[in-house]
Design goal:
The chain is an alpha+beta fold. It has 2 domains: 12-80, SH3 Domains (SH3 type barrels, Roll); 91-245, endopeptidase domain like (from Nostoc punctiforme) (endopeptidase fold (from Nostoc punctiforme), Alpha-Beta Complex), CATH 3.90.1720. The protein contains 4 helices and 17 strands. The strands form 5 sheets. The protein has a 6-stranded antiparallel β-sheet. Strands 6-5-4-1-7 form a 5-stranded antiparallel β-sheet, with no helix packed on it. A two-stranded antiparallel ribbon has the order 2-3. Helix 1 (122-134) packs across helix 2 (156-168). The longest helix is centred in the middle third of the chain and has 13 residues, at 122-134. It starts with 15 loop residues before the first strand and ends with a strand.
Length: 248
């Protein structure tokens, strides 16, 4: 079988999108006969992933579905996505990746005195997330509440917003539907990393992945902030809609 040549790397870290110029099918593989995953309409923007071929872009759509679309100029065009804030190029510090770029749907709140500043390493950012989240273990679930508003409880999405706010200085919506549609970079489940925002049931629930097949979240059947399994085969893994990367 003739090997399919792989295009030069267009990593997701370039924050480029593929604009749909004419309606096209998202397919499960880089072939015209691959099964159809979704129908992408004209004007849709798709997130570019690594692994494109000379004939197909490898992309993720707004619902978190990953696949391939025809990269011919008639159907699609590669577009650079403007950063949501002033950024610098990724750097290396002590062997760890460092990037000051903020994810979509987020602005930086300097007044909160975040544990990990924008130029912290990814490991430092995750450590900060874990520190803030663990400090809230046992906090009761009450819909529509947040400690950022002086209350003594959270709902699921106000909890995630609170954690990213105090750990990284991210100011973002506390609404789960907004976090689903507008916050973070969508990546495949297979690319899930500690610190990622996890969205379940099309925005019905959210949590934060902490590694080893677990997330920390508010509610989720516990009635409080606690840990739940998200390993393959678990209840919450089966309900996982999209993984949102919050730093790169």
């Amino acid at each position: 079988m003739l090997a399919i040549p792989v295009a030069p790397a267009f990593a997701a870290t370039t924050h480029s999108t593929v604009a749909v110029k004419h309606a096209v099918y998202l397919r499960s593989g880089p072939h015209l006969y691959s099964p159809r995953v979704a129908f992408e309409t004209t004007g849709t923007d798709l997130t570019l992933d690594s692994g494109s071929t000379y004939a197909f872009w490898h992309v993720t759509n707004s619902q978190g579905r990953t696949g391939y679309v025809d990269r011919s100029a008639y159907y699609t065009a590669l577009v650079s996505t403007a950063a949501t804030t002033s950024t610098t190029a990724a750097q290396v510090s002590g062997g760890n990746a460092v990037s000051t770029q903020l994810p979509p749907g987020v602005r930086y709140d300097a007044s909160v005195h975040a544990i990990a500043p924008p130029n912290a390493t990814n490991q430092q950012k995750f450590n900060a997330i874990l520190q803030v989240a663990k400090a809230q273990l046992g906090t009761p679930y009450v819909w529509g509440t947040s400690k950022d508003r002086g209350q003594d409880s959270f709902d699921c999405s106000n909890f995630t917003a609170y954690v990213y706010h105090h750990a990284l200085g991210y100011k973002m919506s506390g609404a789960s539907q907004t976090q689903y549609h507008s916050v973070g970079w969508a990546v495949p489940k297979s690319a899930m990393q500690p610190g990622d925002l996890l969205v379940f049931d099309q925005g019905g629930h959210v949590g934060i992945y902490i590694g080893n097949g677990e997330m920390i979240q508010e509610g989720g059947g516990l009635g409080k902030v606690g840990y739940l399994k998200v390993s393959p085969g678990s209840y919450w893994y089966n309900h996982l809609t999209v993984v949102k990367q919050m730093y790169q």
